[in-house]
Input
Amino acid sequence: MSTTLNPTIEKETLAVETKPVRELSGSQAVLEACIVEGVDTIFGYPGGAIMPIYDALYDYHDKLKHILVRHEQGGIHAGQGYARSSGKVGVVFATSGPGATNLVTGLADAMIDSTPLVCITGQVFAHLLGTDAFQETDVVNITTPVTKWNYQITDATEIPHVLAKAFYIARSGRPGPVLIDISKNAQIQKFNYEGYTRCNHIRSYRPKPIVRKEYLEAAAKLINEAKKPFVIFGQGVILGKAEKEFKAFIEKAGLPAAWTILGLSALPTDHPQNVGMLGMHGNYGPNVLTNDCDVLIAVGMRFDDRVTGRLDKYAKQAQIIHLDIDPAEINKNVKVTVPVWGDCKETLPMLTQMVEAKQHREWLSLFNQYTAEEKAAVMDAELFPKSGEMTMGEVIQQLNELTSGEAIIVTDVGQHQMVACRYAKFNASKCNITSGGLGTMGFALPAAIGAKFGAPERTVVAIIGDGGFQMTLQELGTIMQTGLNVKILILNNRFLGMVRQWQELFNDKRYSFVDIQSPDYVQLAKAYGIAGSSVSDRNDLRSALSSMLASEGSYLLEVMVGKENNVFPMVPQGCSVSEIRLK
Amino acid sequence: MKKEFTITVYTENQVGLLNRIAIIFSRRKINIDSLNVSPSEVESIHRFTIVMNETEDVVRKLCLQIEKQVEVLKAYFNTSDEIIWQEMALYKVPTDAVAEKLKVERLLREYGARAVVIRKDYTIFETTGHREETDRLIHFLEPYGLIEFVRTARIAIIKASSGFHEKIKEFEAVEPAEELIENEFLNQGQAVFTM
Output
């Protein structure tokens, strides 16, 4: 590969005299960047246009662990799982064309759930761009709406600087996915490598808005005067690494706090002020009392429609304080009284200092009253059924008892997800990994693989429905090849359960294409060398779960649950949160 | 209530940024009435002028989404009474018609137009103004055999813009822009790459 085409070669040559310079290929520079950024695991799949990077990887195998997945979608979900369990940036490699387009679902998922990723895709030679070359797709334009930033490199000299920007943008501010497309010539091209400098500033990019004290003071005043203050929190607390600061804040001011699905695990589930889950399948009290509180304090959450229900009937009586790092989230869905722009790692301690120490015992006990009502109407039958078909809830309940809330729970999308999030116990942060915003079926298995690599010392349980599992089950091959220890718990109701539930409730039970058959999952696991079993009798559940958790390696447990069980409570679409139904 | 808004955006000069900004509108099925992109007085900093009809609430959110883009420096939105704006238009007409009808010249003066090119076969006039003004001249010229017409996007100056120029210069002076790198290899031929 000639470097004579490189217009900056003269400048580079001058630098030789002053800096220690060595000649590297673009591919080697990519891997050097990963090392300096502290990347230990890369999820990827090779192909023609990324071959030079994979060739370089051959010599870096002692410094960088590469996990060969079975499909690029599996690779990016694994990257997401890794990022979510470790708090670090997930790194994914894919080739051009179909390799790159297979990343799109994961990028969209990471974008809406603010997951830091750096995806590197190979691209055809720069001189072939726009010629419909073999495996050429316009990946930069395809991924523009689903990336926080993306960039195409056609010259190797750009690599160190652009990758430094990529990692910085992915992890800073409101995190998100970044895609860097590198043409094959740039991967091959040799250039004078002057080392890698991590980026911590881009002139046009302000990751954190400036904290304005006057708004914090106004917020503290509202909280101090409130009779019925209510905190709702999201993943911002986890992404901001502000779990301690958040706990200190709600404890000092005596505030009941409810979580969004991605906020789950930021506050231990058994904390006395943790009043449960918000939204469509959330808990009774938090939904009803959203429309009863006088001050609503939203921390690192974005008022998704699944949380708010009907907006014109959402917390209209309340003064609303919104803490968020992303200025575009303030007043996006819900008009706020006091906006608090900033990183909650900074703003929460400031607010804690300003609020008076209080206990809202009576107000908190109102939540408990609603919980008691929900327990009688829904939870007892779901968690402790005495007869009939098994419920998803009792599986989660038994799992809680066996893991004591110490496991990382990765869920897919649908009924099992809602049940798992409603009932799973968590003692520590970053333990709930699920596809929240995009609702990507097929997320859980690959994400669990990534989560295990991100937190190897933890038990990782992937809870998946029979529909979602069949979307990405090829990743069993990744588990097989890596010898990874992931527990796979399939809750099989022989239906696409959530759609079936809606068809039952809103479409007169017209079950349109929700009846889904499954293969023999135990045999399937066996074919991949993964131990497994299936239970359909309640009496076998506990021991089956114990065996799964105690097994040396990965294990697949299928639990046959009731075919037509519904998830309740439920805020029907188009209804207000206070119109939540218990049945 | 929907009304006309003009969004002014200062950005880096980067490949693909136009698409990043354009899809913020198309994602919401909002039509852009007029779009101008060109370097500001500082060459590396580009200025977008985007005109649309929307409610103020929607426009405010659009601006925040635009500002959220990594390579966007700043976005402002203004109603039409907060800006001074112009569009430029070019009109090509047969020279015979113009020369014969004295009335034309008089009216061109009325419209503030000027002749850019006068050839034997055709003459090109230029005028600047608001949409209605340039439209009016089209209607006037039509009977005289208008051959071709083109108009630019709106450019707008914000009335309350004190300090803009100094701020941009200072911004660039403190930290100069990164170099724009384009694809140097197109049309370089297959001979360059052996693989």
